[in-house]
What does this fold into?
Amino acid sequence: EVSLVESGGAVVQPGGSLRLSCAASGFTFSTYDMNWARQAPGKGLEWISYINSRGNTIYYADSVKGRFTISRNNAKKSLYLQMNSLTDEDTAVYFCSRSLSEWLPDDYWGQGTLVTVSS
Amino acid sequence: DVQMTQSPSSLSASVGDRVTITCRASQSINNYLNWYQQKPGKAPKLLIYAASSLQSGVPSRFSGSGSGTDFTLTISSLQPEDFATYYCQQSFIARTFGQGTKVETK
It folds into this structure.
């Protein structure tokens, strides 16, 4: 059974850093592209980053470019999101998802991990 | 960047109603348009991909149409489990979501 489990969410102070992880199981992780999206409390979904299966094509939303870094370790079947210079606008539930290609949809999603930026 | 404009932002409907949600892209995205359903506290669920292809396991009362810049999600006969928020997403250039449409009970 396909499973994506996010972890690493926490309460962090403004200006702080956090690293999220997404553990994959039940499918061949190394053949899938991966994405991060987030959802602020009571708001809609916002896509924030994409990485292809080999890790050599990466995109970011303007809202996180220069502050967030996506990466993956295919041997560990894990996806990561390094978040720096956090502001209260980064408070959200962060979801990871998979897709077969850059143009195909995200067919499985994790349940999300909550990041709260607050002093 | 491709902007996605979804309408309406919310609607009230009854079980059995036909429901239509529209999504407009700021530039042509061919048919790289996907629709998701999200319930409170849950992850999004893929309903429709490539504008009109039904994801496996999704009831046939859900359908999608459109190409280029204008797209539609239709629920032919609303069921109690369909009250949720629906999002369009373009996957032509990176990804962008519409702002969502909340389907509420009338």
In short: The radius of gyration of chain A is 13 Å. The longest strand of chain A covers residues 18-25.
